[in-house]
Design brief:
Blueprint lengths: L10 E11 L3 E2 L3 E2 L3 E14 L3 E9 L6 E2 L5 E2 L11 E6 L5 E10 L2 E13 L6
Antiparallel strand pairs: 1-10, 2-9, 3-9, 4-8, 4-10, 5-6, 5-9, 7-8
C-alpha cells in the first residue's frame, strides 16, 4: 500500500513573497535538483486600477540563461491575464534544473500576488 504522506515528499519554495506588485516581477531561479517534478502556484488578491499582469514560467540549465518554457513542458496553462482573488496551478515537466516565474505588467496599476514552487517526487526522502 502506498504511503499517503505528502509532507515528507515535497519541498516548497516561495518564489515571490505575498506583496503588491506595481511593475513586472521576475523571481530568482528555483533549483529543482533532487526532484522529478514541480508545480507553480500563483495566488492573487486585489487588483488596483485594472492592473493587468501576464504570468509565464521560464527554465534554465545553469540559473543564468533563461527561456520561456514551451507549452509541451507544462501541464495546464497560464491565463492571458491574472484575475483578482484567484489561485492558479501549472505543472512543469521539462528537463531543466532551474525555473523562475515572470509576472509581466501590461497595463494598470497593481495586483497583490505571490508565487510558490512545489517541488515533488523527491529522489531522497524525507524532504527537509
Amino acid at each position: 500500500m502506498a504511503s499517503k504522506d505528502l509532507y515528507n515528499n515535497i519541498g516548497i519554495v516561495q518564489a515571490v513573497a505575498p506583496q503588491v506588485l506595481t511593475a513586472t516581477n521576475t523571481s530568482s531561479g528555483v533549483d529543482l535538483a533532487g526532484f522529478e517534478s514541480a508545480t507553480v502556484v500563483i495566488s492573487t488578491g486585489a487588483i488596483v486600477a485594472s492592473g493587468n499582469f501576464t504570468p509565464k514560467l521560464q527554465d534554465s540549465a545553469d540559473n543564468s540563461t533563461f527561456a520561456d518554457v514551451a507549452a509541451a513542458d507544462l501541464i495546464g496553462s497560464f491565463p492571458s491575464a491574472l484575475a483578482a482573488t484567484t489561485v492558479y496551478k501549472v505543472g512543469y515537466k521539462g528537463s531543466k534544473r532551474y525555473v523562475r516565474s515572470v509576472l509581466t505588467l501590461n497595463s494598470g496599476t497593481s495586483i497583490a500576488a505571490s508565487v510558490d514552487v512545489v517541488r515533488a517526487h523527491a529522489r531522497s526522502k524525507p524532504v527537509a
